[in-house]
Design a protein that fits this description.
This protein has helices spanning 3-24, 163-166, 172-175; strands at residues 51-54, 58-60, 63-66, 72-74, 79-87, 91-98, 103-112, 118-120, 125-129, 141-147, 169-170. It is of the alpha+beta class. It has two domains: 1-26; 31-175, Glucose Permease (Domain IIA). β1 and β2 (58-60) form a beta hairpin.
Length: 179
């Protein structure tokens, strides 16, 4: 086999393996765990997801789970922490990539309990509930968002504000439906 054919064959194998990894992530088991220790579905308003109008972002793209400041924040599902840091809006935050290529965003933390590029198990402590970022002066809560890098066209609703953007978010209240 000549070198050009060998490279083409290896390229096809590499592409097939990459495709297998991407597709297999959709079949990984996904645990849906409420990410605040001791919290239940009564600790957030289920109608706050995609509430309009909401601050600079226009719509509220997650839920706020209220708890005492310092309450442990738990990983809602297993995944890879891809970023843990601070920004002006979310304050101290953790961003995690979980099954089904979903990004889980935990914001307004009092303290971050995990470094970036670490695999965490569902239920593992990743921080503490706080009031950082634009939550200063408000009751302590965890702002929790689930976002996908791919559109979910069945979620498009032209009657909603930012309807096109809604296709890239999962309603956390539905995610925790069985909790």
């Amino acid at each position: 086999m000549n070198a050009a054919r060998r490279r083409f064959s290896l390229s096809r194998i590499g592409t097939a393996l990459l495709l297998l990894v991407i597709v297999s992530a959709f079949f990984l088991p996904e645990t849906a765990r409420i990410p605040v220790s001791g919290a239940s579905r009564t600790d957030w308003n289920p109608q706050s997801f995609w509430y309009y109008p909401w601050g600079r972002s226009g719509t509220h793209k997650g839920i706020d789970i209220f708890a005492q400041e310092g309450t442990p924040v738990l990983a809602a599902t297993s995944g890879l922490v891809i970023s843990a840091g601070e920004d002006s809006v979310g304050g101290l935050y953790v961003l995690m990539l979980g099954a089904k290529w979903r990004f889980h965003y935990y914001a307004h933390l009092q303290q971050i309990g995990t470094p970036s590029w670490r695999w965490v198990q569902a239920g593992e402590t990743i921080g503490k509930v706080g009031t950082t970022g634009n939550a200063k002066g408000k009751p302590a809560h965890l702002h929790y968002v689930i976002r996908t890098p791919y559109p979910q066209p069945w979620l498009f609703d032209p009657g909603l504000p930012q309807a096109w953007n809604r296709m890239f978010f999962v309603d956390p209240d539905h995610f925790f439906r069985n909790q």
